């Protein structure tokens, strides 16, 4: 007796698309066969629908204290919105406090998440206070199942200098760990702020000054420098939230040299240009870091996804309500940075990537599930539809279109940059370890059912 049988689904993996029946027992995929003739507690008919491995969002910030406030999706509302969007695993961050250890940050963050998460989760260990012990501690953390570290090149309280970057990249090579990096040039941004943060510019440009003050080269230079450090150390470098064509192009160049350099981008960089900041009423809502750039960058990032030199699409969800964003009061340096997005990642990439012919559905599976699973040590438990893997899956009906409405579909932020957009590929069902946790935008699991997943070393 199986717990769940899905009949006649079109299963999509990185390398195959095939019609099959699929059986699940105790949260695992136990059967994949045509005409599966076994009794099951529950049966789902999926003729003509795509069954994909559950999406893995390797970059989320739920209930993050940031920019003088706390991001508004907590581990319950954030992970339930994620589940409705087809995500079955998220990786958030355990950010080290000055003077404290990495282990303390991991413990505290796990405590915050533990009885709230509705889907499986893991954490990147964010290093903000490097010292002699940290190099040793990195090994302990990897052995606890946290095989990736995050560093920031900006944000005064968190940032790392080149010496720290070189040290952690060296350690990543020794430990088989991944270094995730927010790459923007701190000194260039400070220099630009001196010029742009004036009453005259604030008055004239409003939220658009946020874009003026963060031109493309602030990312390009930092990405190039980080790639150079990956080259000289032989470390494993994953550049988060790439927003520029030049950033993506630099990743391509270093990949072609055979280096372990990987790139992530996010839907907002693929779908918007900095014109959004020109809207006097809503422009400030789109402020995030790094900045949404130009048409040239949007195109370059899609080329990176199609050309296979970018590796993943994640959301960098860091959501603030309209009221939280309103504190900017006209000053672009005071906007809480970040956007919502877990609920719309899959349908956006399906609609604008697959349906518009930029990438295949198999490539979507690679970018949203299999590749992040491999890069972050979740594979083969997650990131694929295979016998023995966790039964984490998402069912979409390619004939169905929705008009996205954040009041109707689970969202947890009260607004969405994609409000009113016509989207295909919105999940009909999301299945997490064999349990249906979301159906057509309604969440149906229990807070705390999600598990902390111990990750292994990275597969490059
Ligand atoms: O603006 C953003 N992206 N907020 C979250 C923090 C970060 O830099 O990823
Ligand atoms: Zn960042
Ligand atoms: Zn982030």
Taken as a percent bin, the fraction of beta residues is 15-25%
Count of helical regions: 14
* Strand count: 21
Percentage of residues in helical conformation: 25-40%
Largest sheet: 9 strands, mixed
The end-to-end distance, rounded to whole angstroms, is 38 Å
Rg? 21 Å
Large-scale geometry: globular
Mean pLDDT: 97
This entry's quaternary arrangement is single chain
Give unreliable regions as ranges: none
Bound molecules: N-(aminocarbonyl)-beta-alanine, zinc ion
Name the features.
single chain; 460 residues; alpha/beta; 9-stranded mixed β-sheet; 8-stranded parallel β-sheet; 21 strands; binds N-(aminocarbonyl)-beta-alanine; binds zinc ion
Written description of the protein model:
The chain is of the alpha/beta class and 460 residues long. It is built from 14 helices and 21 strands. It has helices at residues 75-84, 102-114, 132-143, 162-175, 186-196, 199-205, 208-212, 217-233, 245-256, 267-271, 295-306, 322-325, 345-354, 361-375, and strands at 2-12, 17-25, 28-33, 40-45, 50-53, 55-57, 65-66, 69-70, 87-95, 120-126, 148-152, 178-182, 237-242, 261-265, 312-313, 393-396, 401-403, 422-424, 429-432, 435-439, 442-443. The strands form four sheets. Strands 1, 2, 3, 4, 5, 16, 19, 20 and 21 form a nine-stranded mixed sheet that branches. Strands 6-9-10-11-12-13-14-15 form an eight-stranded parallel sheet. The radius of gyration is 21 Å and the shape is globular. The structure holds N-(aminocarbonyl)-beta-alanine and zinc ion (2 copies).
């Amino acid at each position: 007796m199986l717990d769940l049988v899905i009949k006649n689904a079109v299963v999509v993996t990185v390398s195959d698309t095939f019609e099959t029946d699929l059986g699940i027992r105790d949260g695992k995929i136990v059967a994949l066969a045509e005409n599966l003739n076994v009794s099951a507690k529950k049966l789902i008919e999926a003729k003509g629908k795509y069954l994909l491995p559950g999406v893995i969002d390797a970059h989320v910030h739920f209930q993050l204290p940031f920019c003088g406030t706390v991001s508004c999706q907590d581990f319950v509302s954030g992970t339930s919105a994620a589940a409705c969007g087809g995500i079955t695993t998220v990786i958030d961050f355990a950010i080290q406090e000055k003077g404290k250890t990495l282990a303390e940050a991991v413990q505290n963050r796990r405590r915050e998440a533990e009885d709230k998460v509705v889907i499986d989760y893991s954490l990147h260990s964010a290093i903000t206070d490097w010292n002699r012990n940290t190099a040793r501690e990195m090994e302990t953390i990897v052995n606890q199942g946290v095989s990736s570290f995050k560093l920031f090149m900006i944000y005064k309280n968190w940032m790392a200098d080149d010496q720290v970057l070189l040290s952690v990249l060296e350690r990543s090579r020794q430990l088989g760990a991944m270094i995730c990096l927010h790459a923007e040039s701190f000194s260039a941004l400070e220099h630009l702020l001196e010029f742009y943060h004036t009453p005259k510019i604030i008055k004239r440009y409003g939220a658009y000054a946020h874009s003026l003050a963060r031109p493309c080269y602030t990312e390009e230079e930092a990405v190039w420098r980080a790639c150079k450090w990956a080259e000289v150390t032989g470390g494993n470098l994953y550049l988060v939230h790439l927003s520029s064509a030049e950033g993506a192009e630099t990743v391509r160049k270093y990949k072609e040299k055979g280096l372990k350099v990987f790139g992530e981008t996010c839907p907002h960089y693929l779908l918007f240009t900095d014109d959004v900041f020109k809207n006097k009423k809503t422009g400030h809502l789109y402020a995030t870091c790094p900045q949404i750039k130009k048409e040239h960058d949007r195109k370059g990032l899609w080329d990176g996804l199609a050309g296979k030199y970018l590796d993943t699409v994640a959301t960098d969800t860091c959501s603030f309500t309209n009221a939280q964003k309103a504190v900017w009061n006209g000053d672009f340096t005071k906007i809480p940075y970040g956007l919502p997005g877990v609920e719309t990642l899959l349908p956006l990439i399906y609609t604008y990537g697959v349906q518009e012919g930029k990438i295949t559905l198999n490539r979507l599976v690679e970018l949203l599930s299999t590749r992040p699973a491999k890069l972050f040590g979740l594979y083969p438990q997650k990131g694929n539809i295979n016998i023995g893997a966790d039964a984490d899956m998402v069912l979409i009906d390619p004939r169905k279109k929705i008009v996205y409405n954040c009041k109707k579909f689970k969202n947890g932020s009260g607004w969405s940059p994609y409000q009113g957009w016509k989207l295909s590929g919105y999940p009909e069902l999301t299945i997490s370890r064999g349990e249906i946790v979301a159906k057509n935008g309604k969440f149906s699991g229990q807070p705390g059912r999600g598990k902390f997943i111990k990750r292994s070393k990275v597969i490059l």
